[in-house]
Amino acid sequence: MLGEKLKELRESRGLLQRQVGTVLEVDAAYVSKIENNDKPLNRGHISLLSELYQVEESELVSYWLAEKILGVVSQEYEALKAIELAESELKNGGKAK
User: By the 8 A CB rule, do 92 and 23 touch?
Assistant: First the structure.
């Protein structure tokens, strides 16, 4: 999810993985692993990427958080119900119903 989005953004701007790696202070192989969802993206890199790709940081944070959530619940039978409960909790300012 996030990796695909980052690859799409990079390619749409005509950038090479090594150029992105320079901004993040990592090598091109690491950027490749991020884009292939083989390595997680460091939260601190999101603001750098939002500047580089000229997108809202909140958009990338949403993808980043979604990946974190999926990593925790994807193998759980009741994942969707749990996400619905969490969504309700967030909408109610932390007060579950």
Answer: no
Up-side HSE of residue 29: CA atoms within 13 Å toward CB? 0
Tokens in use for 36? 């292939």
pTM (2 decimals)? Answer: 0.81
At residue 61's C-alpha, the angle toward residues 13 and 24, to 5°, is 55
Classify domain 2-91 at the CATH topology level.
434 Repressor (Amino-terminal Domain) (1.10.260)
C-alpha distances in angstroms, 42 versus 21, 36, 60, 89?
Answer: 13, 15, 12, 27
Query: Could you report the per-residue pLDDT of 70-91, keeping only the tens digit for each?
Result: 888 888 889 999 889 988 998 9
Return the ∠ at Cα 38 (arms to 20 and 26), rounded to 5°.
30
What are the boundaries of each domain within the chain? 2-91
